[in-house]
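Box 3.1. Reading complex inputs
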Amino acid sequence: MAKEEKKERSLFSEKGFEIFNKYGIFIILLILMLFMTIMIPGFLSTRNIFNIMRQMSIKGLLALGVTLIIITGGIDLSSGAVVAFASVVTASFAQPGDSFLLAIIVGLGAGALAGLINGTIISKAKIPPFIATLGMMQAARGVALLYSGGRPIGNLSEAFEFIGGGDILGLPVPIIIFSLLIIITHLILSQTKLGKSIYAIGGNEEAAYICGINVPRVKLIIYTYAGLLAGLGAIILTSRISSGQPTAGLTYEMDAIAGTVIGGTSLSGGIGSIGGTVVGVMIIGVLNNGLDLMNVSSYWQQILKGVIIVTAIIIDVWKRKRQ
Amino acid sequence: MSKENIILEMKNITKVFPGVKALDNVNLKVKKGTVHGLMGENGAGKSTLMKVLMGIYEPEKGEVMFKGKQLKFADVNNSLEKGISMIHQELSPIPYTTIAENIFLGREPTYGFGVVNHKQLFKNTKDLFENLNIDLNPKTKMKDLSIADMQMVEIAKAISYDADLIIMDEPTSAITDKEVDHLFKMIRNLKEKDVAVIYITHKMEEVFQITDEVTVLRDGKYIGTEKSEDIDSDQLITMMVGRELGEVFIKEESEIKEVLLSAENLSKEGKLRETTFKDVSFDVKEGEILGFSGLVGSGRSEVMEALFGITNLDSGKIYIKGEEVVIDSPSDAIKNKLALLTEDRKSSGLYLPLPVDENMISASIDKFLSKNFIDNKKVKKECQELSEKLNIKTPSLAQIVDNLSGGNQQKVLIARWLLTDPDILILDEPTRGIDVGAKSEIHKLMSALAQTGKAIIMISSEMPEILGMSDRIVVMHEGKKMGELTREEATQEKIMNLASGNIKEAI
């Protein structure tokens, strides 16, 4: 019975395309890594791989939230600015003598609050996500500058710096946090009612409403969750650079969106997966790291990233046409 | 028949999609100044053949001769220039532009340098409408039109190209009988001007009313071409499905028991061009199929949408099993064991990019949860059972629903609502635009559901369906209930009279 089913699947081209598409991106990542390994001695060392993963863990966290949002057909332009806002707030509560836990709660709360505001504006006032989060992007950055007086907030407690720099059983803490959130978000998306509702809304919002799905509530939850993840990213970043920076997270939202889209999530909604996003973010991470190590100028790096994003979309569109 | 009379000849057209032979050596010959019916079940290859003709698909094999010249398979504009235009089955209006801009899109009269001459544009449209006897203001925005009016605009657009051959892909699927008569008049006028029409339809009676010849396709293969006067609908159905169909409507007797739902004086005043309804009352009993008939725009769908909580009522009461209920949202309706299969399966039913199983479980996710997580085994089991029961043709439950045929998509949506285990099913045009086989399966299913004690409300614009399936028929006209007929007393004439507002004639 099971064998028969497999046969059927390989016969049907759409499914075949889908599988090709999924693995296609994974194959691109492998080729990229192979290339870097040949070009750069020591690229595949544990140290460098950890380095890549630590670098991408923050943008990766943002991308997890962005993936849920884009699957509903929305967008979040504010995640980078929310990182800055949460970063300065966290830093001000992570001074020597402050409670370690309080700093984390405040950081997560700041992110979640920004997300909640996004979600409320989008689901209650019915403002398009592009506009609502564009507004939040400006406002959150402004609040961060105002709160910090435009200067970094330094002098953090030693305990707090463990989050960004510490190891547990030889694994860097940011990587552990990121991995945990990948699993949690994946489970939410693929195994819960919320996850099914997210796909349904992206697939056809009106139909989802007729099926009894509480569309505004789902949107409120996912934008808040994305904010929470941005808060978590801000905590890691603040700890790593030992200060709260009002200019932190600049253009992070773009890398998060790019990673998501490269990972196969469709901007028209209804299609996407956490696995794809992780691979997409890793492609960006490997590219950044490898090109740095190869001493490619950052100007060229930007151009290359641009080309890769557009190429990913072209493949996506082309694939859909084939269907 | 001499060669000169043939305007279009398609020979041995073969088109292969990955995994499917969509067209297999298909032939089509259309004569000047005739209406040529093209028939076949969904998936028979009609649309693919027309897309080959329009230059949208390039076939692997075959040739097309049009007006004696071999046609190159190039782009759509090319086929328009050559004199072929098409009315598509699915409307694609640009909502915030005017009727005139939609009709002359891409060929607007200009002052030169691409500056549009709007005065001329509106005049051209007005002239066109006067010619065709269409009563619409060219300056109206497309978004403010009813679906029927949009369809008329689409028809006018196709005619406005002054083509020698017009393809009409189910032009009557969204318009009322009155407009169908109007369309047929336009078609006869076209014939007099020696224009040929390829007419794709699922409706038997239309074939015999308007076509001169009919070509039948089945499973991508050419079955045959017959003169319409030499053939009857049984023979045609046999050609299409390759089997004898006994009765199309298999309504079986079911025991009608107590009133399950009753609606009292439902009213809603709409804004601007929204359809409104006033004081609509009806009830439906266990085991009963209640038909809702009326012209398009009579307010039938709007009543059902309000009943289901998609829109809100201004006044009126709803009772279920004698108790008053308040339904403010679809989730309230589902809790009260109501189900609504909406009229337009693509815009308000399907999640096109999602697989079959996700489409099925969407209205009943709660029952698949075990400790907050989806029980995938249960999902698979129940979806599998239902898709076998409803005979849904799909390679697997993981298939993207967009890739299924219309009939199978409709069955997926029916499965979605059956999974909610409803007592009252509201089916809005349950068989629109789907093939004969799937249609009769859905009718059989409706009968079977009624027999198990479910109450069914069916909106249908097809007279035979209403007469064949309903135990009782409510007829609406301009937002009001005009009357109610039992199965025994209902006739086509009575319904038509009520639907057009002639109460006296009906009684």
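In summary: Residues 1-12 of chain A have pLDDT under 50 and may be disordered.
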